[in-house]
Amino acid sequence: MRLEQSIITRRTxxxxxxxxxxxxxxxxxxxxLLKFIYPSLGRxxxxxxxxxxxxxxxxxxxxxxxPWGAKLGLIFKKSDGTLYALKGVCTHxxxxxxxxxxxxxxxxxxxxxxFDEDGKNIEGPPPKPLEFFDITIEDEKLIVAKKGxxxxxxxx
Length: 156
What we know:
By secondary structure, the protein is an alpha+beta fold. 21% of the residues lie in helices and 33% in strands.
């Protein structure tokens, strides 16, 4: 059936609408499947170079985020002033974690996972501890690298 002065029939309109919905549904289902099969999509860097002034003066018992590839990285300063760098995602499903200074624990809100301030998984579904990185300071650069990766910056 065609409405008067219309070039599109009802059948064409409904076919286009349902085809678009079907394509959107398939693409939406395909992306998580590919991400599950190939977890290395959005590859992480071996190291990042940060401005040291931005991170060395954070208050004790707090965190400050930095980009670790496409994921969240955290600079964490313990109560005693010791500085750490860690990947800021849960080891369960890669959800971002937050630091709860009053509890001195890291929390994953996606599935209620808890980590102590040493990164050890203590409650909830996370299967392993948080990933910590090596930190070195050269000149005014803060170099955060994966464990075992040696970083040599070009001399200027």
